[in-house]
Structure to design on (703 residues):
């Protein structure tokens, strides 16, 4: 090989080595003396001497983070893991957070737990898959992480081995995770905004950090990354096929023009009657209310409301989205109108006004008119109940229409809803309905 | 008469306790009805109104006829219905549409829903005519009434009652159901797709049955008329034991080890 050839080869080697070093450095950034702390840490075992206040705080934080929802299989012991989470890259199985020494967090120390929450690395140092939302939990304080750790160690120990993830190559490799993390993850600290109230900052901390709201309420790119915890602009949850609406857009789920009382009521009860118009938390948000937000204090819900109110615009200063398809208003004598009269009007009213306290209106309902019709289609196909919470223990239910209406009929019906009573949203096609049919639990 | 008065009072009391705005809801409904077209039926704040999510598939008042696939709910023992709701929620029964419906509901509400459908005393429609041979039906009847001791299959009637209407609170009746539904349930138990609380007696029994036996049992059960006024036995007969240990039923099994709870 010529001298030039050798030089070229050496340059390539150097470039690869530099790139590798950069990826490794980016993956370990911010860890400082954590390894030393982990080496010297002893494992705490909560016993009679444990501070009950700290455990209660940890239990509360676990609710705020809704950890149990993902870390519990259907019908399984709480926090013992094993729930399958389908992603575009394969299936991830949640891990056992109980203190079992062989299959749970038994051998984990508090700094190791902190490293998982803050840096996204496991007790053995391996890089964790970001289905665990450490891109958000990185904002959780060390004190809160320690309280969570103490609480998890106080749970009944359950032996249940974690099922290995079933991710496709290359997503199942540590190298791929290292590259992903170098591109999209940076350990962060929640920086309070001095110009805002303590209440607002508490709300921002909960929404952006432990609450990991952006895990659903944000778009993901081709590699599954969001723009970070501050992006709450809405997105379709991959595979699940529910659309988590934008929390900044007043024509989706933005609440800038809502009263704080109404926001708190929705998060606490799963339903809120806003001047006679019922709003319900449905789909995955119903689960969030059921397992997480209904258990939070009024003060924390108020803080979250204070923060959410400052995201995005109000109706007054936002432009109404143009209807997707320029179409004539649906005919009152068309098949959509007939289907509506036969199947919907008894509860939602002839003019789509709903019934206060029981059934949401369809006229002027953002869930009906959002550009992405995923949730509307799925609610009609699958029906459903609002969550039964302490504030709304016996919710009303809507029947599933998937057994009795075909895709064409549902498309006509939904196009009718989206174009009637002042609604001006685009039509829904049979292909749209077909896309979401079969997305539900099997 | 006395009972009716009591029920009305109880309903009113419950409404006041759980929904302070009940009166306002009723008022709102009246307003919307008076402004709306006359075709819209009056809205009432009742449990039945709240449970339209159920009656869409299980028939008005939960009285689905044997002509379809969905099982009737009306008149089944409350404990049985409650256990099935829990089984769907906790993954022991695998039917996605039911699972998504019950997922966000509390144990208390599920229990109330079960009690509601159990309390409905509605006449049964005529059964489906059998489509199997006389020999198959004879085999079906023998399995239901006598079982097959050689295959360790107890008679259905040993647990489900001589009238096959079930035993309150947790053993279901077997009559008045669609044939395809009974057939599918026994098949699902045989393959482990449907499960119940451990020890799972029906899984044990179904695994002893051949597919042709399942066919015979479903055929015979589905052709039986339900006599007017037939109901689940109010209680398990004192002193009797179950032939197989059965979770959640509250009755001891023949073997001393077969604790039931």
């Amino acid at each position: 090989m010529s001298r030039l050839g050798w030089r070229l080869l050496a340059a390539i080697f150097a470039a690869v080595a530099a790139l590798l070093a950069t990826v490794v450095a980016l993956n370990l950034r911010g860890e400082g003396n954590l390894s030393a702390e982990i080496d010297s840490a002893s494992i705490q075992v909560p016993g009679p001497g444990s501070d009950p206040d700290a455990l209660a705080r940890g239990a509360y934080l676990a609710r705020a983070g809704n950890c149990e929802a993902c870390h519990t299989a259907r019908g399984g012991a709480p926090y013992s893991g094993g729930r399958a989470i389908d992603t575009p890259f394969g299936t991830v199985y949640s891990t056992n957070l109980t203190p079992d020494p062989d299959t749970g967090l038994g051998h984990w120390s508090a700094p190791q737990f902190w490293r998982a929450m803050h840096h996204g690395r496991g007790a053995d140092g391996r890089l964790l898959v970001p289905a665990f939302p450490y891109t958000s939990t990185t904002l959780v304080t060390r004190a809160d992480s320690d309280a969570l750790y103490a609480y998890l160690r106080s749970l009944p120990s359950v032996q249940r081995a974690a099922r290995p993830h079933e991710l496709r190559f290359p997503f199942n490799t540590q190298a791929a995770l290292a590259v992903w993390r170098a591109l999209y993850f940076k350990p962060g600290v929640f920086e309070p905004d001095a110009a805002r109230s303590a209440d607002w900052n508490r709300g921002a901390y909960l929404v952006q950090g432990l609450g990991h709201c952006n895990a659903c309420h944000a778009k993901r790119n081709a590699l599954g990354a969001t723009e970070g915890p501050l992006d709450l602009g809405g997105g379709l949850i991959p595979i699940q096929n529910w659309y988590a609406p934008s929390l900044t857009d007043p024509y989706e789920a933005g609440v800038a023009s809502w009263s704080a009382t109404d926001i708190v009521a929705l998060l606490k009860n799963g339903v809120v009657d806003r001047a006679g118009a019922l709003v319900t938390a449905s789909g995955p948000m119903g689960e969030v209310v059921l397992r997480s937000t209904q258990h939070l204090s009024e003060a924390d819900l108020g803080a979250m409301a204070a923060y959410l109110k400052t995201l995005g615009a109000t109706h007054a200063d936002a432009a109404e989205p143009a209807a997707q398809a320029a179409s004539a208003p649906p005919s009152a004598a068309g098949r959509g109108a007939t289907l509506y009269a036969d199947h919907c009007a008894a509860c939602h009213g002839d003019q789509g006004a709903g019934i206060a306290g029981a059934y949401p209106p369809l006229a002027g309902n953002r869930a009906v008119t959002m550009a992405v019709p995923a949730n509307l289609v799925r609610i009609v196909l699958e029906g459903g109940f609002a969550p039964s919470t302490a504030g709304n223990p016996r919710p009303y239910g809507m029947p599933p229409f998937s057994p009795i209406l075909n895709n064409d009929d549902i498309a006509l019906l939904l196009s009718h809803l989206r174009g009637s009573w002042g609604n001006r949203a685009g039509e829904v096609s049979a292909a749209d309905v077909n896309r979401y049919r079969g997305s539900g639990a099997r | 008469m006395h009972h009716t008065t009591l029920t009305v009072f109880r309903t009113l009391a419950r409404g006041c306790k759980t929904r302070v705005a009940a009166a306002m809801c009723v008022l709102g409904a009246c307003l919307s009805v008076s402004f709306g077209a006359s075709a819209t039926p009056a809205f009432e704040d009742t449990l039945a109104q709240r449970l339209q999510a159920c009656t869409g598939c299980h028939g008005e008042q939960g009285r689905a006829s044997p002509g379809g696939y969905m099982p009737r709910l009306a008149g089944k023992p409350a404990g049985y219905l409650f256990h099935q709701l829990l089984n769907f929620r906790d993954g022991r029964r695998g039917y996605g549409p039911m699972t998504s419906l019950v997922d966000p509901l509390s144990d208390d509400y599920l229990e109330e829903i079960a009690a509601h459908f159990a309390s409905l005393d509605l006449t049964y429609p005529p059964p489906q005519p059998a489509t199997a041979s006389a020999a198959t039906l004879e085999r079906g009847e023998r399995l239901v009434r006598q079982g097959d001791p050689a295959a360790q299959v107890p008679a259905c009637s040993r647990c489900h009652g001589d009238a096959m209407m079930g035993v309150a609170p947790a053993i279901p009746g077997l009559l008045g159901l669609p044939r395809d539904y009974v057939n599918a349930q026994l098949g699902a138990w045989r393959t482990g797709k449907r499960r119940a609380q451990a020890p799972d007696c029906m899984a044990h029994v179904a695994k002893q049955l051949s597919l042709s036996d399942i066919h015979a049992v479903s055929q015979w059960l589905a052709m039986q008329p339900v006599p007017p006024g037939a109901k689940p036995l109010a209680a398990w007969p004192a002193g009797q034991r179950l032939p197989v240990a059965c979770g959640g039923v509250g009755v001891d099994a023949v073997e001393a080890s077969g604790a039931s709870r």
